[in-house]
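Weekly structure sync, notes
Attendees: PL (lead), two postdocs, one rotation student
Agenda item 3: pending single-chain targets
PL asked that the sequence for the first pending target be pasted directly into the notes so everyone works from the same version. It is reproduced below exactly as submitted, 108 residues in total.
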Amino acid sequence: MVETLILEAKIRYENPVHGCIAVEEKLRLEIEETMKELDLVQKANAYFKELRKRSLYYKKNKETSTSGTQSFKGHKSDSTLEEATSITEHHAIQDVETRIDLNDNDGT
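Predicted structure, written out during the meeting:
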């Protein structure tokens, strides 16, 4: 009990207006900030766990879909959907560029 009185006297000396209430308020604010930070860390942790799950799921599905080679009339192909899409997009871009060049050459 004596230690408590000494602590209160010291705090009152350092902060004569608010005394222990100022210290309590400061500690309460620190607890609130720490709780907010903890909540943020927990949300980030949950986000990255979900991201990892999705990544592993995508990787597993990709491995099973590209594990075997497909044959079509004696031709074996290991190309994935991504490669086919990129080739198609590349040809579409070249087609647009060709049309632009033709329009520029026509004088329009």
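Discussion points:
- Confidence is low (pLDDT under 50) at residues 71-78.
- The first helix runs from residue 2 to 14.
Action: rotation student to compare against the earlier draft before next sync.
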